[in-house]
Amino acid sequence: AESELTAGYHTEYSGMGFGFYYLAEYLNLFVVSGIAATVFLGGWAPLNIGLDGFDAVMNCIPGIVWFLGKTFVVVFLLMWIKWTFPRLRVDQILKLEWKYLLPLSLIILVLMTVCVAFGWTFTK
Description:
By secondary structure, the protein is mainly α. The protein has helices at 2-5, 16-40, 52-59, 63-84, 90-117.
């Protein structure tokens, strides 16, 4: 692995350059998690499961708390994956994204579009 040979980018960056590199990496993690929380987890919408008492309590929590909570859950999951599999190469991640996750998300998008177009929604 490149980290065992020359420490990779550690040889290129030092001091503030290294600090800005890590800052940008984690800033990107939070930005992507915020977008994922908005697009896939409902963003600022509370968790409602259909029970009136539970839903009333959940609706009292402000939207920013829901958004930040969902964002931090996604950040936690991404960090968990990153720290569990530290040697994933960029080509392996891109293969996962382009060959599996993108087609899956497009299928889900088409399925949800059809459900909304025909009125097959699960609202009260």
